[in-house]
Amino acid sequence: MKWVARNQIVALSLTIIAAALLVSPAHADPKVIVVNTTNNPVPVQLASGSNAPVIVRAVDSPAPQPFQTRTNITLAAGVFGALPSLFTVPAGKRLVLEFASTSVFMPSGQPIRILHVGINNPSVANADIYPTFRLTASGDDIYSGSQLIRLYVEPGQEVLVDFERPTTTGTASANVTLSGYFVDVQ
Length: 186
Prior knowledge:
By secondary structure, this protein is mainly beta.
């Protein structure tokens, strides 16, 4: 009788150990598939150390394509201002302008009246640039500045720079650099 009871205890113990091994996480399938509707999204939390950063990208927006241009605008003696077209955005693209920098050379004592980046669309605001006076050298007052801007230029629209002064004495010039990126549009 003792042998039967002992064999039953051993059999029961082995059954419990086998069951525990079958449901242990070491044998679980590593794939987890969760199906939820957009009204009930699955919350996700990422945990990563500084030596293993999580790479993130926007999958719902097209890749940006870099853009940069530079121009020089010269106002000869007798000329009050200029509004040159720098660039026309090609079909299928949108230009996002993000940064403007400038260096301006004015006849001594002559201030800058207007310096701004615009679009040939009167319903869109311009981005004013405010260069700071730096020094006077060789008869010119020298100004420079840079700033963040945000202009969206649609396909077929032109990027313009308006440079004006209050008087027409002497020669003035402005070097303007713009940078941003293109995105594809339908």
